[in-house]
What does this fold into?
Amino acid sequence: MRPLLILAVLMLVLGACTGVPASSALPAPSWYVDSARFQRGAHAGLDCSDCHADIQLDDVPAKHPSADRITQDARVLFDYRACERCHKEEYAAYATGVHAEVRDGARVKTSTFDAPTCGNCHNAHYAPAQRTRVELFAVQSDVCGACHPAERATYLQNFHGKAAVHLGEKRSAGCTDCHGGHRVASLTQAEDALAVCQRCHPEASPNMAGFLIHAHEELPAPEARRAFESTLLFYAKLLLTLFVVGVLGFFYAHTLLWLIRSLHRRLRG
Amino acid sequence: MSHPVAYWRFNLWDRLTHLLLIVSMVGLIGSRFPLKFSDALGARGAIALMGGVGGAGVIHRVSAIILGMACLMNLVSVAYLILVKRRPIFGPDSIFPRGKDFTDLWQHARYFFGRGERPKFDRYAYWEKFDYWAVFWGMAIIGGSGLVLWFPAIATQFLPGIVINLAYLAHSDEAMLAFGFLIVVHLFNTHLRPERFPLDKVIFTGKISADEWARDHSLEWERVQHAPGRLDEQRVH
It folds into this structure.
């Protein structure tokens, strides 16, 4: 018993040390700017006016915003083109991606969520700099998962998600390793998916990209992508579950009855 | 104090095979439970203990090879019995199922409900045979799907990608079945039931006492009484 206890304690301590990631959800946008926190972030050292062209500097007092403005989400009011100046690559990728397409109305969305701008995924005031891959795995799973909950759930059922987000394996893949954070490639074309897998699995063949990373557990709608395979998976899961429950049920009942009988015999003498 | 007479039930080879089975099962289950239940408390720590996800993967694969070796060792043992010792495949001593196993199960079930006597078992009772065959069937399904997961790129050279999903499903569900079976049914049947509690050492020492033999495998016991050579051959000195 002792070695088992020691093992359990070791597991918990090591688990705590290897850093269970703190909540990586974005703070709610606010009009209050915590300047100490701002100075710890990636944008420490920037002037307010680098992003807020409309902000007045020390010598000229800023106009107090009107009442209807102050009750609106600052992320909706902010003109994120201000980011382009310093983050050209990210901006260009975002601007040509699905999210921007949906925002601009060039593409009709089916999702109930609005398409994000920079502010949905980054907190401009406090975003920490130089985060590690493992930290970003958790961020991505939370940030992207807020609008893509089904993909998040299936990703966390997949080897890559478990290894990356839960177990902190830096070689594994986060959302953006496959989709990118800004262009957000849908990867519905087999060759796109294959190119992505091959970055980490150079030996991958076209069929391997057919592995359903986001394998849903429900029966798919008939017109859904890869409906046949998902249907196959659904029934395979059902059959296997019935089988496992059947065999275990049978033998657990057998064991229980046997136990009762043996005890009964013992007690009767 | 006089020692009760004991007889050999399992030879060294078979006992070693069983030990390897235990080692491989602990390794296999221990290295993959923290991945399957990766968000459970302690999973991260368990993985860190094994040197990360990669280290756990190595332990899993080494254990899988040990399990494969144990299965090969057993095939050798069975081949020896059939080819050299000329034991009939469906004979009373055999691990192969036969009609009596089903009637035994029925009889045993009746006994659980107090209707009738406990059936008399031969060398292997039906649940012992099931334990044994369950490993083989598990080996086929878990081993086969495990190879697909080990070498996904090779497997998908001639199979569609969905096979990896199916392999995950089969591997994981069958493993849960094996685990659920081992820790409840196998442990109870062989070790924890009141007649055997807390541990039945036969599979580890290889020796069975005359009493136990006569009680648990009475048909075999009665049979060897009429083959005096065999009793002497199997007596522990």
